[in-house]
Amino acid sequence: MPYIEEEYDVCVVGAGHAGCEAALACARLGLDTILFTVSVESIALMPCNPNIGGSSKGHLVREIDALGGQMGINIDKTFIQSKMLNCSKGPAVHSLRAQADKSEYTRLMRKTLENTDHLTIRQAEVTELIVENEHIKGVKTFSGASYYSKAVVLCTGTYLKARCLYGDVVNHTGPNGLQSADYLSDSLKENGVELFRFKTGTPARVDKRSIDFSKMEEQKGDERVVPFSFTTDPEDVQIDQVSCWLTYTNLKTHEVIRENLDRSPLYSGMIEGTGPRYCPSIEDKVVKFADKERHQVFLEPEGLYTNEMYVGGMSSSLPEDVQYQMYRSVAGMEQVKIVRNAYAIEYDCINPRQLYPSLEFKKIRGLFSGGQFNGSSGYEEAAAQGLIAGINAAMFSLGKDPLILDRSTSYIGVLIDDLVTKENHEPYRMMTSRAEYRLLLRQDNADLRLSKIGYEVGLISQERYDWVVEKERLIEKEVERIQHVKIGANAAVQKILELHGSTPLKTGTTLAELIRRPELTYEMLKEIDSDRPDFPEDVIEQVNIQVKYDGYIKRQLKQVKEFKKLENKRLPEHFDYDQVKSLRIEAKQKLNLYQPVNLGQASRISGVSPADISVLLVYLEQMYRKNKE
Ligand SMILES: Cc1cc2nc3c(=O)[nH]c(=O)nc-3n(C[C@H](O)[C@H](O)[C@H](O)COP(=O)(O)OP(=O)(O)OC[C@H]3O[C@@H](n4cnc5c(N)ncnc54)[C@H](O)[C@@H]3O)c2cc1C
Could you identify the atom of ligand 1 that is nearest to the CA of residue 39? Predict the structure, then answer.
């Protein structure tokens, strides 16, 4: 039987959050790209929580946007509620989260993909890699068709050999009953790829007409909405918002769960996969935090055109009858009707230490990967990796150097470095505590940190880049001006200080000194600063933060300088560390396994000590001198 054979520059397997970003990046860089999915209707599907962003995840979305990705733009056009989280804390942890209309989110991403030049969408299951001499050549699909390409990006999410479980019910499907992908795992193993078996879970969806909201606390969105994308006009996101609702589990809920733990596939051993520590099921919460009398439950609308509500905080894989008892024990849900059961899903993914920080496989040139397939969890983590894997598949096809973001540039850099350098035996979720330079990596300055890179890669337009350069110039000029604005201890000044509960001045000072007072901001002092030009909101925000946190920012910049010293010390590829005699055995084993790209990455591998790094440093110096002779 004649099989279809086609040629492309890049094949992207998977149209989830990772695959969409990867395919758009390749096509927008002019590469002929084909995007595979088992179901076109599942493009950018949100099989779990109906929101984008949240603590540290909002940072990732802003960084994706600053590099020229799509997620930020897509959510700005399909959100139904938005909140800036952690506003009572410092700007490093301020993080945007928006409730999405799921079906609108999928519909708009599909429309964007379908109208992108150089991009072909194909509903077909990829079953096999085509590899020759450790170089990727393309993929094969279930029908036997072959698609040849210079690079391939795998973003298969939670579909590989997926099975969905609740109680003793097992469905060999992907999320939402979609077809699972059951063949590619075997082809990966045949090509020497090490796989993990991971698991995640989701709560039930319930009918909002069966909920008594009078027993819950309404959670409204922000009055003034801040957009995710730096390209979105803030006036375009000031919409009528829907509310979420807060209620709690109680002792009755916990009793129902404890009495039926033996029927949970999680506790009966039916589930083999490892689950995310930071996204625990309600069973896990009740067992692990047995002293807690209640856990928060958030009812979140899934969209404007549906009555389905997501029961946030109660993901589970308990049997159906127990799910009814459990959800109906919660205040306001006594009569609840379940539309979709809660369930757990198991799937194959890879051990990400097989990847370079470029997200290319060390053993198969031209093969890249992103998303849940790399052992992460979350739409935002997936999209961030998909973008980088897509950019680097494009760079590989164009014979250019890969884009590698280190930990001092971005949360994306932290995410990828943690995945490929640290031992991850459970789904990896981003958190602000993972970023050592988080005062520099704020969500508000992602454009200032990354737009230049997006522009150099070719995903950010000249016009957009020029605006960022102009914004930077305005900020620098204003921050400099403020240092020299003298403020006297006059009546007008004292009145403003009193208004904001700030200590009256005894002698003159500078505007910058006043802004550094915790209770004062650049905006509050505009009345006593007659020469101040008019600026857009985002410039005002930057000026305030850069002046207020000047000392801390300078300290972190010093730390980054130290960090870069090791980061810039490249290590040879495919190197046999057994040659470095004075290295400890454990270090030799780990370095041979991980093949770090630089001394900084080597220093973060568990089992490699600072003493080993000193040994390597001396060895590199000797090698360098020998090569010079
Ligand atoms: C039940 C469930 C619960 C979850 N719970 C959480 C949670 O609590 N917290 C959290 O952060 N995240 C959770 N997630 C994870 C979140 O959904 C994912 O992180 C995110 O969707 C990953 O995006 P992705 O692009 O990597 O993969 P997905 O969104 O899974 O997309 C994968 C894509 O690959 C395609 N595909 C796969 N294999 C093939 C093949 N062989 N051939 C062709 N196409 C293929 C599919 O059609 C799909 O388009 C959950 C997911 C599920 C399913």
Answer: 47
